[in-house]
Amino acid sequence: MGYFNSYVFLVLVMVGTALAGDMLRKSIVYDKNTPDVFYCPQEKPTGFDNMIVKARSLKKLCEFEGQQLPKHYKSDCYNDVDETEFACKEKHRIMKRLNPPGSENNIDFHLEARKIKKLKEF
User: Which of 22, 58, 78, 112 falls between 20 and 30 A from 40, CA-CA?
Assistant: First the structure.
């Protein structure tokens, strides 16, 4: 019986760790009422209802396009969450919403799609 309890505990710890990592990865917040900024956590988030965030310019989101961060770089977001693959996908989604295809301020979506494909290969 002791092995079964240990096994169940281990599985619960692994699932909890995976869910916490996913929450951190997806902690980039964008509000359409403030289109020029995104919000990122300042401390390790324990939940979305009590997350401490800081507003940053949308230009700073995925600033290095998934490349290795410079040694001198100091991120304003916890655990460099603003430079993750998810952050780059999120920026692409936000930019697509702000500048829909066919709009006056159209961006090169093919170029953005190639950047995301490179990130996946990296």
Answer: 112
